[in-house]
């Protein structure tokens, strides 16, 4: 078996220990004689997996008791639509700060349901910044204010200082898409009305999303919706309103447990800071051979888009990287160039190898 360093943006690399445990338990989950994916989600075995996963996630993210945790099928995009159906009245204002592709997607999902207001956008500068807070045009009666904590394609991230700067929103709850940065560093959940994300970036496998919701929000009537789109119904049934994606939930549980065993979010914050610093230093120190154009204060630690000075070298870069055991570095088609995703499961050794490859490639092509 040979494993490469996989810089995919999502689905993304998983910890080897998690994959090995899943392999070992695949045919016979802890002596039951069947795989966990073959057992009823209402049986004692899966109920144990579900309860342990929620408990571990609450520990990992220090989720306060007045927040509910939902495990939902459908990706982050589905939650982007459901959050309006559940927490905004028909036609009510909802404010969006757009700092990249996923903010635009979030806005698009709610257009049928709310008065979607672009409170601020950095699109005019190519999504390389976070619009200064004094420029945000907030609606006083908004159902919520939505941000994308980390823009996975454009590589722009809200850090604590930017979240601090949001300050008083006059009682309007802050909703944040944390798909690609959840659990990457300590987070004060109490800042938010809702934190949500698809799992396939930093929490485990694709096919399951997590929504962390301040409980008082469930008192909102929202909009006419089918029971299956009602977060309250999911909550009342402990995220088992219908058959949940149990295999994905199980893998998510293993991944969360691995993060706790490795030292939790404080430890990942240290590792992620080191990894990002290594890669940005290599880009910035390349004399323009490589470049990242995001405002240094808001550069993402999780997703690093970068460009070669000459795009005709891109193909060779990707081929030679692959030959060196470094895969999935092709940038999103919206931007072109390269992108390296440095989620929790990416070891520092992967970034060290990437940086060494980049220096070597530059020497041969500079
Ligand atoms: C990947 C991603 C999404 C979309 O997730 P899906 O599971 O494909 O719906 C939304 N927001 C962000 C920030 C993402 O990184």
Low-confidence stretches: none
Strand order of the largest sheet: 2-10-9-8-5-3-4
CATH superfamily of the largest domain: Type I PLP-dependent aspartate aminotransferase-like (Major domain)
* CATH architecture call of the largest domain: 3-Layer(aba) Sandwich
- Average pLDDT reading: 97
Radius of gyration: 21 Å
Q: What is the count of helical runs?
A: 10
**Ligand catalogue:** pyridoxal-5'-phosphate
Order of helices and strands: EHHEHEHEEEEHEEEHHHEEHEEH
End-to-end Cα distance, whole Å, is: 35 Å
Number of strands: 14
Q: Might you state the CATH topology name of the largest domain? A: Aspartate Aminotransferase, domain 2
The biggest beta sheet is recorded as: 7 strands, mixed
* Whole-number tally of structural domains: 2
Strand content: 15-25%
C-alpha geometry = globular
Indicate the structural class: alpha/beta
Helix coverage percent: 25-40%
- What's the CATH class label of the largest domain? Alpha Beta
């Amino acid at each position: 078996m040979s494993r490469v360093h996989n810089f995919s943006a999502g689905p993304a690399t998983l910890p080897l220990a998690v994959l090995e445990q899943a392999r070992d338990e695949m045919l016979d989950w802890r002596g039951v004689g069947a795989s966990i994916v073959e057992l009823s989600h209402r049986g004692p075995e899966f109920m144990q997996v579900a309860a342990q996963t929620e408990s571990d996630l609450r520990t990992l993210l220090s989720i306060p008791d007045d927040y509910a945790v939902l495990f939902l099928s459908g990706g982050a995009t589905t939650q982007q639509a459901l959050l309006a159906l559940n927490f905004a009245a028909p036609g009510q204002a909802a404010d969006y700060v757009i700092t990249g592709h996923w903010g635009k997607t979030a806005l698009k999902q709610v257009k049928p349901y709310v008065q979607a207001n672009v409170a601020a956008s950095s699109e005019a500068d190519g999504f390389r910044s976070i619009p200064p807070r004094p420029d945000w045009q907030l609606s006083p009666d908004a159902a919520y204010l939505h941000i994308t904590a980390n823009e996975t394609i454009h590589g722009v991230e809200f850090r604590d200082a930017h979240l601090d700067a949001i300050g008083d929103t006059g009682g309007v709850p802050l909703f944040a898409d944390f798909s690609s940065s959840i659990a990457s560093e300590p987070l004060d959940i109490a800042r938010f009305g809702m934190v949500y994300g698809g799992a396939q970036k930093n929490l485990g496998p694709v096919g399951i999303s997590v929504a962390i919701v301040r409980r008082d929000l469930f008192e909102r009537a929202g909009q006419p919706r089918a029971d299956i789109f009602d977060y309250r119904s999911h909550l009342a049934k402990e995220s088992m309103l219908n058959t949940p994606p149990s295999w994905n939930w199980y893998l998510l549980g293993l991944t969360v447990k691995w993060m706790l065993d490795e030292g939790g979010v404080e430890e990942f914050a240290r590792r992620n800071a080191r990894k990002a610093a290594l890669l940005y230093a290599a880009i910035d120190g390349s004399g323009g051979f490589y470049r990242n154009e995001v405002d240094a204060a808001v550069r993402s630690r999780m997703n690093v888009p970068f460009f070669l000075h000459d795009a005709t070298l891109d193909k060779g870069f990707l081929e030679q990287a692959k030959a060196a055991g470094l895969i999935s570095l092709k940038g999103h088609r919206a931007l072109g160039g390269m992108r390296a995703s440095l989620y929790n499961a990416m070891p520092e050794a992967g970034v060290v190898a990437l940086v060494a490859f980049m220096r070597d490639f530059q020497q041969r092509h500079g």
